[in-house]
Amino acid sequence: MRRVKIIGTAVSAVLLAAAAVILIWFPGLFTCLHMKWKYDNLDRKVPQYETQSAPADFQQLELRGLRISVPADYAPSKKSNSALSGPDGKTRVFVTATAEALELVSDLNPEYDPFAAYDFTEAALRQYFQTVGRPYRGPAGSALLFYCKDRLSVWDGLRLRGSDRAVFAELCEIKNGSWDYEESEKMTIPGGIAYISSGMLGGGAQTVSIFSETDGKQRMVTVTEPDEQLKRQIISSLSFSGTG
Questions:
Q1: Which of 26, 59, 106, 189 has a Cα at 20 to 30 A from 154?
Q2: Are strands 206-212 and 218-223 parallel, antiparallel or unpaired?
Q3: Residue-wise pLDDT tens digits, 184-200
Q4: Where are the alpha helices (DSSP H) in the chain?
Q5: Closest by alpha carbon to 234, among 47, 81, 49?
Q6: What is the per-residue pLDDT across 26-72, written as a single tens digit (0 to 9) for each?
């Protein structure tokens, strides 16, 4: 019996030593495992958008720094230099620069704080991105949402410590819940990446969040064309002006 206890003690010591070494190298291991157990959507990635080439009779226009192909009977809107109208005069494409939209929100509500809905501060979020070695993505606009939805992995937290683990846990919660209110697809475009979302505006409208690979700036394109094939051809044609 004494020999069994000695062997058992030795095995326990080896296991404890191994666990200590693992936690030294991977201090966030238990956080990762807890997140994986807690949430169902952490392994999901945004699927690829099925693109379609624009017909030869489409016209190519530039709108707010974007190049887009649309049917020949589309025309610049008389109401806005950010929009294109269909033959019936109704707006079919609308482009918003996210920075300008946020300035408008701030003007309407000077007390607007994009971090108010989160438990982490801007400093903590910046520290997290620095630790994981990725470009900073703030909560204003949809950059942080699409980072969580498409880039965040449950194993990104393995080497995190302290406040970084708390930020990571909240981002995992965001990723898990982001699939409940809209479906998204993605496509690589000349000069950046685009995320196509349905379900936010209703009525068959789709929103396209486009991120520049050079300056990180974001634009939002809303497409309300009722013909599904035309809408897909229009979205597939998007690129940044001056690319290719």
A1: 189
A2: antiparallel
A3: 899 999 888 999 998 66
A4: 2-25, 29-38, 98-108, 122-132, 143-146, 162-177, 228-236
A5: 49
A6: 667 889 999 999 999 998 889 999 999 999 999 999 988 899 999 99
Q: How far apart are CA 6 and CA 51, in angstroms?
A: 66
Q: Which three-class secondary structure state does DSSP give residue 22?
A: helix
Structure tokens at 167: 């930020």
Q: What is the DSSP string of 126-142?
A: HHHHHHHT-----SSTT
Of the chain, the end-to-end C-alpha distance in Å amounts to 78
The set of residues, in sequence order, having a beta carbon less than 8 Å from that of 206 and lying 6+ positions away, is: 196, 197, 198, 222, 223, 231, 235
Q: Could you tell me what percentage of the chain is helix, strand and coil, using 3-state DSSP and rounding each to the nearest 5?
A: 40, 20, 40
Half-sphere exposure of 185 (CA within 13 A, CB side): 11
